[in-house]
């Protein structure tokens, strides 16, 4: 049977036309998809700017489905999920990104950091730590170390926190000497006296201007019965961190009385009060004066002198407590009302977040900031 070449000559043009038509249809579909994906993306941005996060997420999911290879859409979607507290969905998005073989090194590091932030937001500290450790040597190294520092502080792992703080300081990320001294003080609290004293002395060497190491050392010395040494430590505190004296004014009076150094303590406290009129310092002074035999009327006049210098409801309530009123039968009710009104003014307030507490904290329980509590009470700020 002879093969007819005419069929080949006829089929070639037909195949060419069909191929051309197919390419045109694919090109049109590609252009249509490219138009739809950015449209969905910008729609999501618009919803996000208008704080309509639910609609923004729907728009980004639509955009990701139409263009699954665009990493930026995945990052936007993952960050939205994390902000809304949907950490499981955020983790899935960022883990999907990390599983892609075509992801650039920069986007891989970015995905790893985002995944670590997801775990941190979810409170999965061990998984967050593992994810952050993988970012050593990347562009996210400094940020990952700061996040690790937060994790170790929250878990009270002071040795690892100290290691990370040292790395941050040596990489020119700022001074962490104050935090290092706190970490040493925290470690000292769990040690026997001799080891604790060594750690506190190291903390003083690390941050000579920090108040806490000397205060903790003075407490340790007082507990051991070394009141002379405790007073010397508090005297050194008055020189290195004079603003912290109101925190230890009563302790100064106590150790000085035990060591027979009342005159020296009065001199130290009077100098502090002359510089800053703190009621805590004044009451320590009054306690020493009463024990030394100063007439009670003269002692109580110090409250009036304080009121001339500072408007203090607490001082007024303390003065009225020892006075006889014209209608003395109503004194208890008046005193209770004054004390009730004055109680909130005796608190300490975090300068970073405003969290108030009856006691002074070195690290705020609310925002976790260090040294954010002034040594003076709310009324005196």
TrEMBL record:
The keyword Transcription regulation does not apply. Fe cation binds at residues 350, 353, 364, 367. Residues 24-381 are cytoplasmic. It is found in: Cell inner membrane. Coiled coil: none annotated. TPR repeats lie at residues 37-70. It comes from the Bacteria. It is a single-pass membrane protein. Keywords: Cell inner membrane, Cell membrane, Iron, Membrane, Metal-binding, Repeat, TPR repeat, Transmembrane, Transmembrane helix. Modulates cellular lipopolysaccharide (LPS) levels by regulating LpxC, which is involved in lipid A biosynthesis. May act by modulating the proteolytic activity of FtsH towards LpxC. May also coordinate assembly of proteins involved in LPS synthesis at the plasma membrane. Belongs to the LapB family. This is Lipopolysaccharide assembly protein B. It comes from Rhodoferax ferrireducens.
């Amino acid at each position: 049977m002879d093969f007819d070449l005419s069929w080949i000559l006829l089929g070639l043009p037909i195949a060419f036309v069909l191929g051309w038509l197919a390419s045109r249809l694919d090109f049109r579909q590609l252009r249509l998809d490219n138009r739809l994906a950015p449209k969905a993306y910008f729609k999501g941005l618009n919803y996000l700017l208008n704080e309509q996060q639910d609609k923004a997420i729907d728009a980004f999911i639509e955009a990701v489905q139409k263009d699954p290879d665009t990493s930026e859409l995945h990052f936007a979607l993952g960050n939205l999920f994390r902000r809304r507290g949907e950490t499981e969905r955020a983790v899935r998005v960022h883990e999907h990104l990390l599983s892609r073989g075509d992801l650039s090194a920069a986007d891989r590091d970015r995905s790893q950091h985002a995944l670590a932030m997801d775990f941190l937001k979810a409170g999965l500290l061990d998984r967050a730590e593992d994810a952050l450790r993988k970012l050593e040597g990347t562009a996210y190294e400094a940020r990952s170390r700061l996040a690790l520092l937060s994790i170790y502080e929250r878990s009270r792992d002071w040795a690892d926190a100290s290691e990370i703080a040292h790395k941050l300081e040596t990489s020119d990320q700022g001074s962490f000497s104050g935090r290092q001294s706190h970490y040493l003080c925290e470690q000292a609290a769990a040690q026997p006296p001799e080891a604790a004293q060594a750690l506190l002395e190291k903390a003083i060497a690390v941050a000579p201007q920090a108040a806490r190491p000397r205060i903790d050392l003075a407490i340790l010395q007082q507990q051991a019965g070394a009141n002379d040494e405790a007073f010397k430590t508090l005297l050194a505190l008055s020189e290195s961190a004079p603003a912290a004296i109101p925190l230890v004014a009563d302790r100064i009076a106590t150790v000085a009385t035990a060591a027979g150094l009342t005159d020296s303590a009065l001199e130290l406290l009077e100098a502090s009060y002359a510089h800053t009129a703190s009621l805590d310092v004044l009451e320590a002074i009054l306690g020493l004066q009463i024990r030394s035999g100063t007439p009670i009327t003269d002692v109580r006049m110090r409250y009036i002198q304080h009121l001339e210098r500072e408007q203090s409801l607490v001082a007024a309530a303390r003065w009225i407590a020892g006075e006889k009123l014209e209608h003395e039968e109503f004194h208890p009710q008046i005193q209770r009302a004054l004390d009730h009104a004055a109680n909130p003014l005796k608190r300490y307030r975090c300068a970073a977040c405003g969290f108030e507490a009856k006691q002074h904290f070195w690290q705020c329980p609310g925002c976790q900031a260090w040294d954010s509590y002034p040594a003076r009470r709310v009324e005196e700020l």
